[in-house]
Amino acid sequence: MLDRELLQILACPQCKGDLEYREKEDKLICHKCKLAYKIVDDIPVMLVDEAEVVDE
Questions:
Q1: How many angstroms separate the Cα of 14 from the Cα of each of 1, 27, 37, 40, 54?
Q2: Is 9 helix (H, G, I), strand (E, B) or coil?
Q3: Cα separation of 55 and 31, whole Å?
Q4: Which one, of 19, 8, 18, 14, lies nearest residue 47 by Cα?
Q5: Scanning 25, 33, 40, 45, which has its CA 20 to 30 A from the CA of 4?
Q6: pLDDT on residue 13
Q7: To 5 degrees, how large is the angle CA 12–CA 55–CA 41?
Q8: Which ranges of the chain would DSSP assign to H, the alpha helix?
Q9: How far apart are CA 13 and CA 6, in angstroms?
Q10: Helices and strands in the chain, H and E counts
Q11: What is the pLDDT of residue 1?
C-alpha cells in the first residue's frame, strides 16, 4: 500500500492531472489520459512510455 502523503503529491507525468489509486490492481490511473501506471515493490513507475492504456 502506498503512503497517503505520497498519493497526495503524485500527478500524471503526461497531463499533470489527478491519479486514482487502485490498490487491488496495484496501479495508478489517470482518467484524462486513460493511462495506468504500475506499482512495483511499493514504488510507482511514473514513466509514460511504460504506462498501460486503459479502457474505462
A1: 23, 16, 11, 20, 15
A2: helix
A3: 10
A4: 14
A5: 33
A6: 98
A7: 50
A8: 4-9
A9: 14
A10: 1, 5
A11: 78
